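Example 9 (inverse folding). The structure is encoded as follows.
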């Protein structure tokens, strides 16, 4: 659920970018809707609304949400002001590399690596497994940042935006699935609940 909520601003960004540019008038003020710069405006507004609502509801944001929100603000504002997409193109690489830095730092500060903080409530695995997964995520974020940088500055705007919105999601989903064999034997199953269900079916 959390990941879906975090994804809302990107979906707004893509939807506005895909629109044909048109001028609208609000209180006598003409403004263009559609295209990449308008999409950056909506990405900024949607991020502030979504993370603001989460902060009000939860009284907090996790460190990754703070990093994402701050990055949106820092990279969208100059994109909008200077009408230059180069600023926005650096957002995904830098955010991924910051995530990698957080995962590296978690090995030396605190009792748990970052991945255990994120998944430890659902999976009870030995410490060496969490450190192995944490290292995998470090390399993943470094590589994903490099891929985003290459895509942003070598491919067309259309391919860059589609990769930004959908490519990252697909790669991350695939990477998570690839870790399931490592975690599968540590995922706790409610045996009592399973026996009850079996008894009900046999009855």
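The amino acid assigned to each position is listed next.
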């Amino acid at each position: 659920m959390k990941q879906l909520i975090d994804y809302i601003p990107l979906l707004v960004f893509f939807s506005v970018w895909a629109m044909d540019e048109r001028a609208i008038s609000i209180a006598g003020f003409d403004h263009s809707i559609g295209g990449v710069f308008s999409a950056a405006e909506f990405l900024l507004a949607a991020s502030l609304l979504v993370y603001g609502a989460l902060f009000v509801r939860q009284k907090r944001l996790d460190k990754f949400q703070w990093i994402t929100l701050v990055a949106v603000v820092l990279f969208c504002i100059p994109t909008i002001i200077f009408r230059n997409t180069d600023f926005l193109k650096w957002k995904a690489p830098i955010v991924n590399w910051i995530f990698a830095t957080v995962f590296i730092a978690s090995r030396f500060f605190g009792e748990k690596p970052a991945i255990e903080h994120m998944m430890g409530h659902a999976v009870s695995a030995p410490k060496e497994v969490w450190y192995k997964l944490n290292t995998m995520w470090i390399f993943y974020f470094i590589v994903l940042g490099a891929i985003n940088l290459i895509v942003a500055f070598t491919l067309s705007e259309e391919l860059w935006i589609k990769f930004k919105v959908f490519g990252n999601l697909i790669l991350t989903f695939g990477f998570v699935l690839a870790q399931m064999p490592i975690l599968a034997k540590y995922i706790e199953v409610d045996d009592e609940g399973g026996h009850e269900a079996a008894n009900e079916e046999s009855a």
